[in-house]
Batch of 4 targets.
Target 1
Amino acid sequence: MSVLSVQERNSESPRELRLQGNIPGIVYGGSAPARITLNGKELSKAYENVSYYTGIIQLQTGKAKEDVLAKAVQLDPVTDRIIHADFMRVNKEMRIRVRVPVRFINEEKSIAIKRGGVLNIIVHALEVKCSPYQIPSELVYDLSGVGMTDQILLEKLKLSKDVTPVNAARNRILATIVAPTSGNEPTAAEAAEGTTA
């Protein structure tokens, strides 16, 4: 869990804050939005973590701590440095919607891929509903034993009891196996020559 030191933002302009090495931000949800100032180095380090958008972040103001999720960052179009950050307050009673990446493993153990089939991924990230404290960093589909005619379906994806797909019907097919073309089929050029012979 990342812990970021924050201060209440006063009258300083965003430009002044950035010149001091700080980043302006906002926290919303649950109560009135709060304008905050974050330490630029701390925020950049947290942002580099792959779980930045799926893990709980604690914002610490003095001795007080508040649990949040990162919702958005605004980057400078030239330097790619963070120039603003948005956070949402969370608690253990909430259930939220979040997109989680889907990762396919053990391609080398798939019968179809061994025979030259190609994995065609349809769903790269799945929107799920869960507790903000139970967001999976990724959803893993094991391709071991998958044959050429097998369907790679959402229902075969192992999800924890707390994680529910938001649009199960729309995302039912996660991926397909594209069968290899026959090596005996003529190429387009060969077919064209045959028609003119």
Note: The longest strand covers residues 64-75.
Target 2
Amino acid sequence: VYRERLDAWKNVTRTLEREFDASVPRPVSGQYCGDSVESDRGDQDVVSHLRFLSDGSVRGDGVDGKDGAYTLAGRWSGGRCAWIETYKSFEVVVDGWVKKGGDICIRFCSSRGITGSVDLELLDSIN
């Protein structure tokens, strides 16, 4: 499952890079929080610090309640974003959409084969 999701993620990020338009307002950078819903029932709190950069890249870090700290890197374009979270012993591909209110809905798949989703709520913005 993970290999398929990683291949799909690579296609999404190539599309985001091709479609990137610097004149389109970027998503709000800041601290996002939510609760995961996971296929292994390992639901947990998620805190992500996301920086949406003017070149179409997204960078950041975060902490999951059970899995610990991670860094992330990826792409954004318009209302879509995708990144890879890198943990100590595994990685997670993420595909997301920015909602009208600024929150972000993500789907994910880990290299451990766990899938799920999180509604990330913007708590604090940074500019």
Note: The two ends are 37 Å apart (CA to CA).
Target 3
Amino acid sequence: MLDCLSFLTAAICHDLGHDGYTNGFHVNAVTPRAIDSNDVSVQEHYHAAELFRILTKKQNNFVEDLSKDEYKIFRKRIIGLIMATDMSHHAEAVSKINGTVSEFDISDGKNVEKLTEGQNESELFKTQQFIMETALHCCDISQQTREFGIAKEWTYLLFEEFFMQGDLEL
């Protein structure tokens, strides 16, 4: 249940407060977001931090009944999940997925159970985190898999963001 709550919360909030600019733009412009994140996964650090700032307000804290240990897991999961949406890690993520699929001979739904066989609690946490991060990253970049009209609309919205950013960079 806690993993599901973590995943859904991260999915909903992974672009919380996104300002329409890339991480690279923030780094090059030395914006407050870049400074706060030390130029690393600028937007993703902002989204995660903003979520937890919101949760500090009593009226927004829907996880207040979690134990201290559950809250630590919830927070760790969410931060990792949101960081996994940083496109600068895409090639590394694909390589890791391909390596995992190859290592365990996963194909057509077979051998998936091998992912967790013989793992201790710490290893199991990491494997579960990897699976959730992969799923969220796939969802985040899935616009091209939608019906053409919707994919086209999202593409033009992205173009608009990039052109606005380009105008500022001139």
Note: The longest helix spans residues 148-169.
Target 4
Amino acid sequence: TKMNRLLQQVGGRIDAVYFWPHAPDDGCDCRKPLPGLLLQIGERYGVDLQGVAACGDKLEHLIAAQAAGCEPHLVLTGKASGLTAQMLPEGLPAGTRVHADLGAFAAHLSGRLAD
């Protein structure tokens, strides 16, 4: 509720919140690094996820993004805070783009819209 209220104050909104309610041993496909949760989002909105930018702060997020066909972006905040572009985790999907924080990721996306 707080998140929605704060976003409404600046003209934003959230259409849906997705989470996985399953434990690691439940064997579902929505728990990262599997792409099920991202695929559910694509289905809900009728969007082909091929090339859609997806960001995360953990290797599992990026692997799931790539498996869903998304373009992986790593933000160096949250779980990835303390990392630098020179100290990236082993196993990053090919083509992963790295951003200092969510603001830098948003600026990158805004720049693509301007092109």
Note: The CA atoms of residues 55 and 73 lie 4 Å apart.
